[in-house]
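Hi team,

As requested, here is the filled-out complex form for the uridine-5'-diphosphate run. I kept the field names the same as last time so the parser does not choke. Let me know if anything looks off before we queue the next batch.

— J.
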Amino acid sequence: MLHKVSLGVGDIDKYRLIETRGLIDEVVSLGDELKGLRLCHINSTPFGGGVAELLVSCIPLLRSLGIKADWQIIRGDRRFFTITKSLHNALQGAPFKEIKKDSTRRVLGANNLENARELDPNYDVFIVNDPQPAALRHFSPDSKAKWVWRCHVDSSQPDPEVWDFLRHYIEEYDAAVFTTGDFIPQDLRLNKVATMAPAIDPFSTKNMFIKRYVCREVLGNIGIDRQRPLITQVSRFDRWKDPFGTIKAYRLAREKIPGLQLAMVGSFATDDPEGWDIYAALSEEIIKDDNMFILSNLSGVGNMEVNAFQRASDLVVQKSIKEGFGLVVAEALWKETPVIAGNTGGIPLQMTGELSNYMVNSTEECAEKIVHCLENPALSKRLGRQGKEIITRNFLMPRLIRDELTLIKKLVAK
Ligand code: UDP
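And here is what came back:
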């Protein structure tokens, strides 16, 4: 059997404290209609990155609605995950010539076949997240379940050869889900293609309210001087997050804001072998400057610490050059911390209104906006408030649960 992530049952009623538009009643009613449905989410890592973050909150809530929801993880060797990271990169547009090689396809096929054999057939619906396990449906030809492929990356301009390879697997699904319509490759032929944006859990350890003095102490314990301004980027060690661009922008901004500090908070995921090299290269840069910090889940920086950084930083930066959605943007805005972020992928969905002026297309622009916000505390405060409103309205977990159950209802009704 595949590894099942150990989780309990959530409490949907708690969300009534925030959500007052009848959405919780709608979600509860969908749960009643689908009561007892056996649903399995599948992905390739139990921690590190947005999908794990989504599932850790979504599964307990689905259970609280009466859905028999589970989350299982595929297995794979290093070679498999090296190839699947290239598939992930290729969906975001990076070339991956090796996809033509028989040996590459053999590794992908063999690993997916092995995982498919371990699948528990007693589920009504499988939701398969991202490209790593995409071929599971192909290798489960006798399955009576409904199958949904959920794409979390910006697949608007995929490498054509990789997309052609994946497309054939995806077209065997009952439905595919993308974060926005712009990400749906034009030649995808599937009866049901839905769009739904991800969401954050306002009550998770990462996002729950913590008092300011606790945040300050957490940062103080790490050696950050809270008397001086601090900007933070939180993300996997991944080239699409442009961590070196963030460092360059920080250095430019520091010319105008002399005491400025930068924290690069990152995490490693079991399905992301490239993270180590990026971490090593970043560490070499960061060590040159006592005002820069690099922190990770390996040195004990977990959800609570990320929460503290997102709350206590003067600004959060997310200088991505490709971004599926960017949960970190939603997380920071939820905490009323203003964000300066790359103008790409799912970020414009979140940075609307005045915040859209703080999406950037270059390192120089990023530095300029950092300085502008730091020099204008009233503006920063306003952006933070507006951000919280946007997230509250559109990007909290009950809305995502509603969208997911609405799709499932349609699929199982057929
Ligand atoms: N994250 C974390 N610790 C870190 C770096 C990232 O917990 O050191 C979390 C972050 O808070 C967010 C998720 O990982 O919840 C990243 O999701 P996002 O959608 O921003 O990017 P992805 O990793 O999915 O590309």
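Two things worth flagging: The chain has a mean pLDDT of 97. The two ends are 29 Å apart (CA to CA).

Thanks,
J.
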